[in-house]
C-alpha cells in the first residue's frame, strides 16, 4: 500500500527498507562511499578507480529494480540518478551535490530508472524556472491569469453545446505564457491548487452569465484532484455563481489511475454526487486501460488530438475512432474529438459517430468577452 519510499518513512518498514537500499547501493558501488541525504535520497561518492560512472549507475538501477522483501511486504521501487563529476562540475561538496541534484531532477523528468550527467545548461534552466515560479506566485494576486473558452460543437444539433475553459497567463514582460509551460510548473510547486480553485470559480461565474444554458468544462490537474479540498471548492464555486451543477463538467486524465485506483474511484463518485459531469480527457494516450471505463461511468470521453491528426495519414486511425465511439456509445458515454483542424477530419468523425468536435476548424479558444458576443449575436 506504499505509494512511494517517502510514504514508508516513520513506519518500521521504512527504516528496514532504507537499510536494504543502502546495502544494495554499497554492493553496487564497491569502493564508493554511501550516505543518506534524507527522505528517499542517497549520495554516493565514487573514486575514479570505481570505473565509468555510467556503468556504475546502470548497475545501481539494475540492482534496485529487483523487488525488496521487507517485513513481509514486497516493495518495488524505481531509481533515478544524477551525476556530477569532479573537478569539471565543481570541486566542493556543496557545488557537486547541487549539480548532481539538478541532473537528478532531469533524470526524474525523463521517467523512472534512468540517470543523467550534469550539464551547464541545466543550471541556467533551473534559474529560469525559479524566476518563472516566483512570477507565477504573483500572477494570481496581480490578476494576470485569464480564462479563454473554446467552443465544443455538437454535430447532431449543428450548434455550440459547451465551452472548455483554458488558462492564459498575460505576463507583463514575457507576454502570453502558454499553459503547456506554466501548468506543469504549477503542478510541481503545488500552486495549481489555488490556481485551479480560481479557475473553477471564474469558469462557473462566467458560465452563469451566458444567455444560454451551455455547459462549461474545467480541467482538473492530478495534483488538484488529490488535494483534500477539491469537493469543497467545487461546491463553493457552484454556490457562489449559482450555476446548475449539471452544467459543470470536470476534465480529468488517465494519469489519476496509475496508482491508488480505489481512492481515485471514491473521489470520482463523491464529485459525481455533487451533480457535476466527469469527462476523461486526452483519451487514448498514456495509460489507457479499458478497465477504467468499466470501473467508472464517465459522462464523456475526449479523444486525444493525436488520433485526429492521424486520421488523414494512417488507415488504422478511422477504425480506432470507430472503436472508441462504439465503445463509448455502448457504455452510455459521449465523445468529443479534440484538435479538429479541417473539414476532412470533421467528415470522418461525423461518419464514425463522434458526438461533438472541438478544434481550430470551428474556433480557437476565445476571451470571455468574445464568447458573450458569439452567444448574443
Ligand atoms: P487540453 O486540456 O488537452 O486542452 C486542449 C488544448 O488543445 C488547448 O491548448 C487548446 O488550445 C488546444 N487546441 C484546441 N484545438 C486545437 C486544434 O485544432 N489544434 C491544435 N494544435 N491545438 C488545439 P492550451 O489552451 O494551450 O492548453 C494546454 C493544456 O494546458 C491543456 O490541454 C490542459 O492540459 C492544460 N490546461 C489549460 N487550462 C488548464 C486549467 O485551467 N487547469 C489545468 N489543470 N490545466 C489546464
Ligand atoms: Ca523522491
Ligand atoms: Ca482538457
Ligand atoms: Ca485534451
From TrEMBL:
Keywords: Membrane, Transmembrane, Transmembrane helix. It comes from Sphingomonas changnyeongensis. Coiled coil: none annotated. This is EAL domain-containing protein. GO terms for cellular component: membrane. One of its GO terms (biological process) is signal transduction. Residues 129-377 form the EAL domain. Residues 1-120 form the GGDEF domain.
Amino acid at each position: 500500500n506504499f505509494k512511494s519510499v517517502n510514504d514508508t518513512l516513520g513506519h518500521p518498514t521504512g527504516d528496514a527498507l532504507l537499510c536494504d537500499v543502502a546495502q544494495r547501493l554499497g554492493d553496487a558501488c564497491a569502493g564508493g562511499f554511501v550516505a543518506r541525504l534524507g527522505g528517499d535520497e542517497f549520495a554516493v561518492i565514487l573514486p575514479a578507480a570505481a570505473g565509468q560512472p555510467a556503468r556504475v549507475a546502470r548497475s545501481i538501477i539494475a540492482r534496485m529494480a529487483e523487488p525488496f522483501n521487507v517485513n513481509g511486504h514486497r516493495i518495488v521501487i524505481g531509481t533515478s540518478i544524477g551525476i556530477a563529476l569532479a573537478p569539471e562540475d565543481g570541486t566542493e561538496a556543496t557545488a557537486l551535490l547541487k549539480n548532481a541534484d539538478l541532473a537528478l531532477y532531469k533524470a526524474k523528468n525523463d521517467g523512472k530508472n534512468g540517470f543523467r550527467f550534469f550539464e551547464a545548461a541545466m543550471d541556467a534552466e533551473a534559474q529560469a524556472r525559479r524566476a518563472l515560479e516566483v512570477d507565477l506566485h504573483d500572477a494570481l494576486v496581480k490578476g494576470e491569469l485569464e480564462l479563454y473558452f473554446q467552443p465544443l460543437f455538437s454535430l447532431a444539433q449543428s450548434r455550440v453545446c459547451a465551452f472548455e475553459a483554458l488558462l492564459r497567463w498575460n505576463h507583463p514582460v514575457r507576454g502570453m505564457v502558454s499553459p503547456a509551460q506554466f501548468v506543469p510548473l504549477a503542478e510541481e510547486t503545488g500552486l495549481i491548487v489555488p490556481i485551479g480553485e480560481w479557475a473553477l470559480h471564474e469558469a462557473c461565474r462566467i458560465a452563469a452569465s451566458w444567455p444560454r444554458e451551455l455547459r462549461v468544462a474545467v480541467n482538473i490537474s492530478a495534483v488538484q484532484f488529490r488535494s483534500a479540498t477539491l469537493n469543497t471548492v467545487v461546491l463553493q464555486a457552484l454556490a457562489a455563481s449559482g450555476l446548475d451543477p449539471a452544467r459543470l463538467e470536470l476534465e480529468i486524465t488517465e494519469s489519476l489511475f496509475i496508482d491508488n485506483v480505489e481512492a481515485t474511484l471514491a473521489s470520482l463518485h463523491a464529485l459525481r454526487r455533487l451533480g457535476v459531469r466527469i469527462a476523461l480527457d486526452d483519451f487514448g494516450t498514456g495509460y489507457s486501460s479499458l478497465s477504467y471505463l468499466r470501473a467508472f461511468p464517465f459522462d464523456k470521453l475526449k479523444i486525444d488530438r493525436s488520433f485526429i491528426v492521424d486520421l488523414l495519414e494512417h488507415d488504422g486511425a478511422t477504425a480506432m475512432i470507430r472503436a472508441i465511439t462504439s465503445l463509448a456509445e455502448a457504455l452510455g458515454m459521449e465523445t468529443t474529438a479534440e484538435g479538429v483542424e479541417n473539414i476532412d477530419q470533421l467528415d470522418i468523425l461525423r461518419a464514425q459517430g463522434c458526438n461533438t468536435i472541438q478544434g481550430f476548424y470551428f474556433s480557437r479558444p476565445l476571451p470571455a468577452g468574445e464568447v458573450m458576443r458569439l452567444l448574443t449575436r
